[in-house]
Amino acid sequence: MIKKILGFKDRNSFINFSLEKIETAMYEMGFNRDFVEEIITPLEKRVSKYGENEFQEWFNELNYRLPGEFKDELFATKIYENHKLLIEEEVINLEKETKLPWKIQAKDLKDINEKARKVQLVIRHRLSDIALDMLN
Q1: Residue 14, exposed/middle/buried by CB under 10 A (0-12, 13-18, 19+)?
Q2: Half-sphere exposure of 78 toward its Cβ, with a 13 Å CA cutoff?
Q3: pTM metric for this prediction
Q4: Of 3, 58, 101, 107, which alpha carbon lies 20 to 30 A from 64's?
Q5: Residue-wise pLDDT tens for the chain (136 aa)?
Q6: Alpha helices for the chain (secondary structure H)
Q7: What is the DSSP letter of 21?
Q8: DSSP-based three-state secondary structure for 81
């Protein structure tokens, strides 16, 4: 019974994890509309497929893991090609924030091209940052 009560309390803290709030947070991070749309669209599909509650739990558990929607190398490379300057700027920002070269940060994202790895690193890190900020 205690676990169910705690689970209910935890679920209430996920209420902030809406697509609208994630989108707003991305704009606040300085991302442009086209980039935000490319990231939000796969997340919208996840909500449609699994429902809002499952999405909220999933988003809470990202914890610096890459969402499956962005693991496709061709998709990630396309995002890079569409937003090269933004991705490169974010990679530099992540290196400054973490004091680690991007290749070390993306060590677990190997076996794909460099462009896709950079996109995946940025998406993984920034979506996780948003989740953590929304919990506070």
Answers
A1: buried
A2: 9
A3: 0.87
A4: 3
A5: 333 334 444 555 566 789 999 999 999 999 999 999 999 999 999 999 999 999 999 999 899 999 999 999 999 999 999 999 999 999 999 999 999 999 999 999 878 899 999 999 999 999 999 999 988 7
A6: 2-13, 19-28, 33-50, 52-60, 73-82, 84-98, 102-105, 114-135
A7: H
A8: helix
